[in-house]
Amino acid sequence: MLIDNADHLQGGSLAGHLEPREIWGPAVNCVNRSCVSSVKGNDMAFDACRAEARQGGDELKSPASDAERPVLVLFRDDLRVADNAALAAASRSGKPVIAAFVLEGASSGARPLGGARRWWLHHSLAALNGTLATIGVRLVLRRGAMGEVVDSLVTESGTDTVFWNRRYDPGAIAADTTMKAGLRNRGVAAESFAGHLLHEPSRLVTSTGGYYKVYSPFWKAVAAGPEPRDPLDVPDGLEPFAGNLASDAPDAFGLLPTKPDWAGGLRQSWTPGEAGARVRLDDFVAGALQDYAEGRDYPAYQATSRLSPHLAHGEITPFQIFAALQGAGSDVSGAGAAKFRKEVGWREFCYHLLFHNPHLGTRNFQPSFNAFPWREDEEALRAWQRGLTGFPIVDAGMRELWETGYMHNRTRMIAASFLTKHLLVDWRAGERWFWDTLVDADAASNPGNWQWVAGCGADAAPYFRIFNPVLQGEKFDPEGRYVRRWLPELARLPARYIHKPWAAPPAVLAESGVRLGETYPRPIVDHRLARERALGAYETARSAP
Ligand SMILES: Cc1cc2nc3c(=O)[nH]c(=O)nc-3n(C[C@H](O)[C@H](O)[C@H](O)COP(=O)(O)OP(=O)(O)OC[C@H]3O[C@@H](n4cnc5c(N)ncnc54)[C@H](O)[C@@H]3O)c2cc1C
């Protein structure tokens, strides 16, 4: 059920301080402090605010006319110019446009990015800078607390309007809410727009007024709502801001790894930025989409879209994806497109859960798991992180992750299940590792999926369904192509042993150049015993008072 309730929007803790760099002189506040514009009509509300001020005899005391005062557009999880509601609104305002990206510190409230996403961000910002330049706008880079940096930019530029697209993780919502209130208090029109979700989490409620905890009814409710809108065009005719705002150099952000430079595999695998996202979407729709429903479970094939890091950085939106599916011709109503839409729906569901459970990344969704007897086992955790568990399908996934910043969904599930059930290591440790190493690390999808696999999440599979990594490997990588790709030390093993090298006769191992315990580890746990241990742990948690 969709309801049109209030803006859920924005809030936060602010820290750090940037010296204001005044170029235009201090901004002149709108004297009407109750100025609040509506979601739809920013321009109209803005005009109304000015009209009210004039009626009261208060004229804006601006060194420039209102039309000359710039609008500041903040870029955050939306590093694109197409289908960007905030930028489109800035274009409609007819005002000179300033584009800014603020690199927030750890105290900002938003979860600090992991290493792989920092690498991506560096390149995505470079791409955005290039794209903005083609439409006449320069990207200003600053670092610090979002609200304070924006305050400085407003002061330095004489900006009277700030636009941004919403973020949906709790820390960011809090920071943005505080920023919005602060800006409005000083008479600056601050407006946020629907960001990177098909549904606004605050507006979708069940018939009893709650939120959805099960995916199917959630997606049914989203599907019953209005059709996703058409994507917005890239604005043209933007008027650049003529002032000279100082900007940090991209390298000063220090986002790239240096010693060591571990990003070689990421560079080979990805093209961060809006153009790279578009190419990937078009290629997928023209190719793999047809077989997506069957192919998506096989990690050896390029059968999925690999759009996740582009979505995580807002280089493409679900609206653009759905529109591309509409234009896909033969398969638009086929099984591939239908399945693909549903998967994009899981991302929406995770955001719905995060919005209503701000602690999704740290607390069990099902409190019954609070008594779960997780094991502290640093050695096992390290073996898992390095892809040295002795279970080839798990290790291949973990090595793909380390090398490329990505792991196929099937192997994510197998690897996460192995950590939480075979090794009984707390899902939060795995979630943190993924957060640091995934280029698509996402504040909603990462904890949402980890909790789902561990059994403590929303709509989770029953805990006692424990993946057997050998059978999973044999089913979804029957020839062992994926394992051979990521574990070259096993490449010469025959297919029948590729997922269980310990079962191969010594002669076969010798012929394949495999020395267990030397070139590749023996299994760090016995599947049957680990399974029994996991079921015992579950019983302990269930019977806890
Ligand atoms: C333990 C674990 C952790 C995960 N962490 C993340 C994460 O941090 N970020 C992330 O984007 N996805 C995460 N996923 C979900 C999923 O694995 C990836 O979205 C998917 O593998 C990305 O590849 P793709 O773009 O080719 O997916 P496709 O199959 O092409 O799907 C298209 C899009 O749908 C969305 N999607 C698909 N499956 C899921 C799902 N299960 N949950 C949420 N969204 C989904 C993604 O946005 C994806 O890009 C995780 C899954 C598991 C099991």
UniProtKB/TrEMBL annotation:
Molecular function terms from GO: deoxyribodipyrimidine photo-lyase activity
Enzyme class: lyase
One Pfam family matching this protein: FAD_binding_7
Keyword Flavoprotein: yes
Domain Photolyase/cryptochrome alpha/beta: 69-198
Cofactor annotation: FAD; (6R)-5,10-methylene-5,6,7,8-tetrahydrofolate
Keyword Flavoprotein: yes
Domain of life: Bacteria
Alphabetically ordered keywords of this record: Chromophore, FAD, Flavoprotein, Lyase
Listed PROSITE patterns: DNA_PHOTOLYASES_1_1, DNA_PHOTOLYASES_1_2, PHR_CRY_ALPHA_BETA
Family under the similarity heading: Belongs to the DNA photolyase family.
UniProt-recorded name of the protein: Deoxyribodipyrimidine photo-lyase
Source organism (scientific name): Pseudochelatococcus lubricantis
